[in-house]
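Service request form, structural biology core

Requester: graduate student, group of Dr. S.
Request type: structure prediction, single chain
Budget code: on file
Notes: please return the result as structure tokens.

Sequence provided:
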Amino acid sequence: MRTRDLVSLKKMVAVLAAAAWAILWGTAAGLAQGRQAPGHPIGKISTQGDLIVMTLDEGVLGKANLFDLGGRTVRFTPDSGGYRVENLPLRWDAEFGSEMSGPQATLEHFTFPFSGKQWNALSVGMTGSISFGAPGGGGRGGRGGRGGRGGGVSVERFAQLQEAGRTLINTVPAICVFFKPRMSGTRYLKEAEDRVVVTWNLTEPMGGIQDFTWTPTVNRFQAVLRKDGSIEMSYQQVTAKDAIVGVYPLVTGGEEKEVGVVERKGNPGAAANLDIQKIVLSAVDGIFLRITLETRGPVLPQGDAGLAGVTYRVALDGPGDHDAAWTIRGGMGGRGGRGGPRYTAFGPGVSPAVTVSGNRISMQGTLPAGFHEGERIAVSASATGPGAAEAAAEAPVTVKLQGIRPPELHLSAVKRDEGPFPVAYEAFHYLSLPNPRDLTCTVIKALGDKFDFLAYYSDFRVDNQEAGTPSNGPLGGGPGGGAVTGIGAEQRGLESYCSQGRFQWQFIQPVYVGSNQMQERPPEGITDTNIHNIVTYAHQLGQRTADGKIPPYDYAMSQIGHELGHRWAAFVSAKIGGETIPLGPTHWARGLQARVPFPYQRPTEASAMGGGVWQDNYDGTFTQLDDDYYVPATGYSYLDLYLMGLLAPSEVPDFFMLRNLVPAGRDRNGHPIFKADRTKVTIEDVIAAEGPRLPDIDHAQKKFNTGMVVVVEHGTKPSKALIERTNGIRERWIDYWATVTGHRASMTATPR
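Core staff response, request fulfilled:
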């Protein structure tokens, strides 16, 4: 790699890391939307010392589909409103042209035909895509396709690539050459009379707590867009194994053709809105499968309070072992129930939007993997009301899939004569994410309801662009089982986690053993000046150890301390002078004074849950002594410890919130200075908004137990590295907890 490329990469990574905390960890509940069904065991449990070993049942995480086009060129040739696709030997233009300083490019010699239009401008995404049209246009409901800040397309932060591939359809005209979020590096563009060549030289994210590598990786690929509309995508050297590759012209004709109708006897004893009389399958624009259920009476409309818990389920049984279920479930819409009751669809390939009209309810998506045009599939359906057991479906009826093609292909095997395809892509991805409730129930059903927290670590990667994990849980009450109040969050769904009242919070997904945050320390010889990379603190932190090295598993403590801290924080507001001021939500606001009373390893630390340590300069400016990012690992603030039941209200000093932050330079030590409006906050202001924290400090839980779970695939055993590293994290977690709680609480990590 060229020297200037490495310099550009490091600058880009530093910029990305500096901005990361603004969105870091989103909302923990967001990832689990549509996955609210009660958990059930998905594997076998054993123990190895103080660790829990979960051996998954066969196939529960699906199959990985890793990138296999290295050293090849994929050509897309326009034909009859679609594209013919060919896999060819590598074609590579070694002359890259000029480095792009931004995403926008204008063609001077020709216009490029794509998605029914001629284009003389394109947006080249830093993460390996090209889009056409107004920057940022075309996204629907925040789901995908919208232009990213680096150009091209983007997807939601926690999007699984195997699902994101289909969500890009009909969002914005786009070409995904090797679309992988969080990549950084350089882009080059060269235009000739009849073609434009775009080349990327990128690395996967490196050095950070959310990364899988400490050093840059090489990912060099190229797109040639020709005047005749053909597209070539070439992969000279690619280290990454997951990305979306394909072409996404808009297909919005709305042409609908009936594929088949399944007549049903129905159930006269069922409520009219749950008595399914007919199942209609239709092909839309040759890409989408629409399933419409007709009931004996009107379906409860969107917004009706009675639809919560109403479930419609359609089973699709294809040839061999290919089967899928598409489900419509009624529930409270939006985050926190905002937006009122509504239906949401979920299942492999299905879009979440649901249409209701009279006695019809419909959902739509792309054919699940393994289903193909011309095959016969068996179709059945069932419906249930709130709290009722699912009724048995009627005997399935076979329907032939005609006029519909799955847009996802195997690009390494596709033949030119198989097209044309209106949309053609392949999503390369790791294993599917497990349902977090299933993980919990697997442990609790086997070992009992004796865990406050559960943390998962694995030998395999899951389909997530970040090495870490969000968190969630039912906010159980510990050994006593009672609810904790006054913290801005309510206990919910204990039965879905198979808990009788104790279990409280957990990782949503297992952390991969090869990720940065499961390494004891960074490799020797790495240097960096990015303050969100642990190696920047090597000298400072090494002063507190006998061997002069960074304390072990610092990134792991950042992760587990932060995520399990969400059991109590950061959800509260403060009521001041008649105004209710949110101090979060989810993470403490950047301007919140959140100094740590019991630091983990540095004299001045801001809370692991956000906020900062602010110095009032008494001239309208404030110096940020520690920021709202949790690298290196930090402890909990006074407010955190009060919410955890470990400080009395009288022990929480007054603090403040800075609003309307405006940068105003740096001090001589490099700390940023801001102008801001200061609002004093007291713990009484928090209590006025939320009520007192109950149980209070004299009755709150002080002893906690974390289940440390190593997760392995069916037929395998945990590796030596997985066992050693999880044990290392376990030991540090016990020490971390005692330190940052000022020894007012203790942590065990045992399955017994």
